Every structure is written in structure tokens, then in C-alpha cells.
Amino acid sequence: MKDYRNTGMKECRGKRVKMLLLFFLFAFLPFTATAQGYGLQWMHHPQADASQQIWFRQDLMLHDPPQQAHLSVASDGRYIVYVNGYHVSTDVFSSNPTGMIAMRDYDITRFLRQGDNVIGVWYAPVGTRGNAESWAADNRQLCVSMSGITADGHHFTVNPNKGWLCRVANARVTDYGETVDGTKYVSDWNRGSLNLMEWLPAEITYDGQGGGFQTNAKPVIQWKGTQGGFRVKRILKRAKVIQQGRTVIYNFGEPVHGWVRVTLRGLKKGEAVEVNGLRYIGTGKTDDQACRRFTTGDAGVARILLPAGRTASCISRVEAIEVSNE
After folding, report:
1. In a designed cystine with 44, which of 69, 123, 141, 205 is the match (CB 3.0 to 4.6 A)?
2. Exposed, middle or buried, 89 (CB in 10 Å: 0-12/13-18/19+)?
3. How far apart are CA 244 and CA 172, in angstroms?
């Protein structure tokens, strides 16, 4: 468990000026500024393959809630930031502009509390498995730093990426969308106490040192707030339904780019449902909800392939969710 006053004020005091200068440089440099010039410190899962989604977690002990606290996050993929289990952004996930890496600043003050706190980040890679170059930057999974003002008015920073643990999540990105195994979801991964089994220390890499980074690596830009994140625009619930054997088709009657969310009842544990490129493995609980988290696709027509012996009666709701970063 990390005590931010001990680590942030003692260990990181010598790095405070350097970090503040880094933030100011990002704020005022042009969008083409490259990451290598600043020696950014990245963390990644030491064993995961290039398609696996990763849970990252850091525990913080706060004697008093700070007056102000900000989390700066950069990633080569897509991600969701949580503090004590709460999604800190109005975006469903954050992503990068084409050919670049965006560093975003999140105000997390209202999510912090006295005592134990947990910062969690759900990371997903982007790219196409058929294109090796687009999956090459796995070591740039996350770069995270925290800064703010303590309750007694002192500025502090928490050493970037220090003390983070990681484990493979219950999902991966595929050629067509995502695979999600509901049986392997850990409900308290981003809050509460931690079972250390299957968690590993995040591995650290600096730009320009190891990881095969070249001088033409993606440039890093500073984006204010959550600019560029994906948000839900609308949800469609009415559709024409056709059943063809094990396949049930929901036609919403208009183009939709985003997700299909399917609520299922009575699936046995391990039974798989396929929905427009999503493969979802059921939990065996009363209800399951099959939905992508980080990839998007055509959602105006939902094609649901049910397990053998299942009929449309196990489908309790189907929604087309339009997701956009515009």
C-alpha cells in the first residue's frame, strides 16, 4: 500500500520540478512534438500477448483527501480510467488521434477519500492482427502520473508508474471485434482489497530504451480534458426480428456505428454467444450482458448466433448503441 505523503513528498521531491516542466512543455508545444524527446516512462504487462486487454491497478493511502488531484494518462491503445471503482470520465473509453498518442488530464479530486484508494485502468490494444506494424508498440501500454495540492496546501507528485500491478483481463481484441469471457471477470479488480494471485508488477520501459522503439514512433500530444474520447450518442431499442435456426437477426432500420448490447437470460456457464464480431462466454448467472467495450462496428443490424439448443426466448433485450468521437 502506497502512502502518497511518504512517497510523493520524500521520494519524488527531487523529480517534482522535472515533472512540472514536462507538463508545461506538453501544454505549449505543437501537436507534432515527439515522445522520445521527453523520455516518457511507460508500463506494460510483462507476459501478455499483443491482443489481450489488461487491468492495471495502483493502491494509494491518503491521510487526508487532497484539495486537488489530477491524473495524466497516455497510452498507445484505448483505455478506461477508474478511481475506487468509479469511471472518472463521461467518455465510454479514451482513444488516440490517427498516428499519434494523446496525453489526457483527468480531475479525480471528487473520487478520492481518506484512507485506502485504488486507481484502475482497463487497457485494450488497437490494430489489426494481419498488420504486424500496428501491433508493434506493446510496451507503450500506459504512462500515468498524479499531481495535485494536499489538504494543507502543498504541491505533490506521485512517481509516474511506480507501484502499479497488472493482470490479463477477461477479454481480448480480435480481427472482427472482441472476445469476452464472463466467467473470468474479477468484480473488484479496480476497487477494494486485492488478491495478489495472477497479478504481476507492471514492467517499466523508457522511450528510446528497449522495446524496439524507433525514431519514427508515434508523437505524443497534450489534449485538454477528455477531448477525442468516444461517447454514446443514442440508443435504439426497436427492431424487426427474424429467426433463422440458431441465428436471430434484429434490424433497427437505419445505419448505426457502435455496439450491439444483448441481455440474455438463463445461459449456462461457458455457453458462447456471437454478436456482430463479439464472442461472449456466459457466466451461468441469471442474466448476462454481451457487449463490446473497446471496438466498434456496424450495429444497425444485429446478428446473434445462439448456442446449440437455444431459441430467441433466452434473449430479453437487444439495443443498438451509437458510439462516436465527434
Report:
1. 141
2. middle
3. 29
